[in-house]
Amino acid sequence: MKNLADAPNFGLNYTYNIMLQRLNRLQSSPLWFLLFGMLTFSRLTAQDNARKPVLTIKGSDTMVILVQRWTEMFPGKGNVQFQVTGGGSGTGISALINGTTDICSSSRPMKSSEIKQIREKYKYNGLEVRVARDGIAVYLNTNNPVQNLTIGQVKRIYTGEILNWKELGGNDAKIVLYSRENNSGTYEFFKEHVLQKQDFAPQTQHMVGTGALVNAVAKDPNAIGFGGIAYASGVRPAALAFNESSRYVLPNEEEILTGNYPVSRLLYFYLKERPTGLTKEFIDWVISKSGQAVVSEVGYLPTKKF
Questions:
Q1: Where does residue 87 fall: left (phi above 0), alpha (psi -120 to 50 degrees), or beta otherwise?
Q2: Which of the following CATH numbers is that of domain 134-264: 3.40.190.10, 3.40.605.10, 1.20.272.10, 3.30.420.40?
Q3: Which of 10, 63, 170, 241 has a CA-to-CA distance to 297 between 20 and 30 Å?
Q4: What CA–CA distance (Å, rounded) separates 295 from 297?
Q5: What is the per-residue pLDDT across 126-165, written as a single tens digit (0 to 9) for each?
Q6: What is the CA radius of gyration of the chain?
């Protein structure tokens, strides 16, 4: 009699039987129903998301954390799929002009040349919505003994006229400059309102995002940077004054809203046409009392008091 182990198909049949037994045991266990349920839920969720309209919001890196929080808190979020990306205000405005984003988030006003492109392409001047207020903080390392700076001193630092912290009452150390890239609305606002349109010093290191800039300042006791007040984590904002005879103030709500803080700005949404449907519903909620409460929660300031 031939041994079964010598049969040509014995190994294959044996393996098949073992796998079948294991599958039967798995199907009768609670784990099988859990896995089946998870796979079914994932499939239904993917199908549901595919049916939802997509609302794209692109632009300011300063505003990314705020916009993401708005999309998370929006009461109608179950009816829309949001896509939020940064890249800089200039990048967002270009995307709006090219028709590749529904909403542009911007930390600077649109330029007349950009509005002209919108008008020529879409026969409409575009729509500006003021969604929040922000103070530009000048970030210092927490170990830097310098506490106060005038706007004139900040300008002289970033144009390369002041090179050492000892000139400002600090340590005898070279000042390390950090800035945003030139496609950033924060960069353009700072250059216009603080540097008075003068060029940044050649040694300035230009960072892709505000988060990267803050991390760099936090690691270097001789560094200085600037950006939105909501990002001032792990660093210390300098108290700023218009000039040496003015009061030095920190970038907080009271000082910004009263106009005492020297460097503040509005944050915007831009659209190439009047919003309708879910887009209008979202924007209306953003500028409502509930939406503006999110602004304060994130660390920025509402456009008005409710």
A1: left
A2: 3.40.190.10
A3: 241
A4: 5
A5: 999 999 999 999 999 999 999 999 999 999 999 999 999 9
A6: 28
